[in-house]
Every structure is written in C-alpha cells, then in structure tokens.
Amino acid sequence: MTATLTSPSSFLTQQQATPRITVLVSPRERFSYARTSLESIYEHTRVPFELVYVDSGSPKSVQKYLQSAAAERGFTLLRTEHFLSPNQARNLGLEQVKTDYVLFVDNDLHVSPGWLEQLWKCAQETDATVVCPLTCIGQPLHEIIHLAGGEARIEQLDDGEKTRRKVHEKHYFVNRPVAEVQDQLHRRQCEFAEFHCMLVKREIFDHIGSLDENLLSTREHIDFCMTVANTGGTLYCEPASVVTYVPDVLYRWSDLAYFMLRWSDTWEVKSLKHFRKKWNLEKDKYFKKRYRRLGHRRHAAFVKPLIRKLTFGRSVPWLENWIVKQERRLNKIIANRYNQREEQIEKIGFSSEQTAVKKV
Known about the structure:
alpha/beta, Spore Coat Polysaccharide Biosynthesis Protein SpsA, Chain A, 12-stranded mixed beta sheet, 13 helices, 14 strands, about 40% helix, globular, disordered N terminus
C-alpha cells in the first residue's frame, strides 16, 4: 500500500515519482519510542513510499497503536507474539518488499525533513548499493554524531609462518558535535553503514541471500556491508540526510524483557563466535574487547539506575557486585527460555512465520 503525500522534490523525474522505496521498520531494542518514531517518518517525508512494519511482541499499548496507525495510514503491519532478533524481523519484512529499494529503519529512529529525498537522490546519482544518512544520537535531536560512514574490511597479516585475518573497523566523526565538523561533512564513499537507517537496492538480496540470522545481536551491519562489498557493490554516506537514533535515558519496565534478550550475553557470544568463524578471523583484541564488555548495555540501562535507587546514590561495592551477579543469572534464564521456545517450534516442524505471524 502507498503513503500518499505532497509532491516530490524537483530533482525527481515523473517516472521516479512513483513509489520505488519501501520503508521497513523493525524493533531495535525497545518499543516505547515506536509511536514518536513512526510519526516522524510521516511528518518529514515528502516523496511517495510504501511501508512495512514488523512488530515482534510489543506491549498491548504499542500493539493497539500500530494497528490503528496501519488502518489509518494504509501500511502493512506484521505481528508476532514472540520476540525476534533484528535480522529475523528484517528478513520477515523483506519478504513483503516489491520495490526497487528497501529502507531499513529501527523503531527508535527520529528523522528530519528531507531525509528520504536526500538518500534517494544520492542513490540515483551514484548508483550505490547502500546509502546511509548522517546518523546522530540522543537528545537534543540531530546534534551529536553517532555515525557518518566508516571503514570495515578484513585485513590479512602475514608474519612469515601463517596468515592472520583481522577486522579493521573505524567510525567517522563518532561522538563529535555536528556544528564542530559541519564543513567536513560531505557525500563520500564508505565501507559500512548501520541498520539504524540504511537504503539498499532490493536486487542485492537476489545475489547474497537474506540477512544472516545467526548474527543475533551484533556485527550484523558489518557482516552485511562486507558481503555487499565482496559482490562489487558500493556504499555511500549522504550527510545531507540527517536522522537520530534515540536510546532511552531511563528505560521503561515494558521494554525490559526484550532489551534483556536483545543484549543478552548468550546472544552476543553466539553472534561474535559466528561472525569470527564465518569470516575466518583471529580472536584478537577486537573480539576480546567485546567479550569484556558483555552486558554493559544492560548494566547501564537497568542495573546501575537500580543500584543508585537502592543506595540513594552512595557507592556500595559489595551490593553492586551482588546485583550484577544476580542479573547475569536472570539474563541467562531469559535467553534459555527463548531458546527453548525456538527449539519447540523446530520440533513441531513449523516455521515461526507459519505459526505466529499475523498480517494486519
């Protein structure tokens, strides 16, 4: 179905003005920003587009809002009653995409005026396989850079005895104020984008297949972009398009279950192991750093705020250590229960799409 909005920008031809883009929205780590995010898309987009929304197990209040919005706006809503990993959700939505381009968007993204027009303009002028915007982080919106493109590739080091393979990854302008580097921001070819917001030629999936669902929570963007590059595809960052990823300062209890699974130690470890094996990589400091940081998102979002409340802001090391230990046990239980559910579905012999996906 098509979202009918005002006339497109002057750079678009009459042929290009027909919908060629499907915006595919899926959960990142929470549900509480879903309404604000979706409404920003409709408010700030002035070219026709189609929209597919994957709702994987959101709370009742969000579910009701999305059902109402889908009826009002005319977009395709897919609902599962259980949580999905990000790549599972994206693949589910991708099955519904028939346009030339798919625009992956996380459900905690806030867009700015002209965001989609500029991404499309870049894609048309460069014939890029992937285009990402200038992605900022936090509030106030559109002020602090999270990603302005970057480098991601496999480097081979030969020490005379064996060849070692390692990941080279570099983010451009990360955590820099936009105002400080504005004159350095320009359209450029790059080596990776992130799924916060990523415009992709639909045809690339005919060559590389669907997104890798064994990457449950991390490195999925690096894996995808390196795969695209290996097929000869090109990636660009277009800073004339500006969006902001909005993590919550204080996460709500209604987001807790999915957030804990999404950033569980189990999912992160499985993802890192699979990524390393898939690309035949050394277990170097790149991986060791990520193993050391297991759980840091959960601790920052829920554990530390809880400790501050219990101790009235005082430092009580023994209590903090005890709570962190208990949280890790709880986190393992959450991940194990999810895995058991998945195993039951496989035993029955039905796919999750057959048993639990509802198209609204």
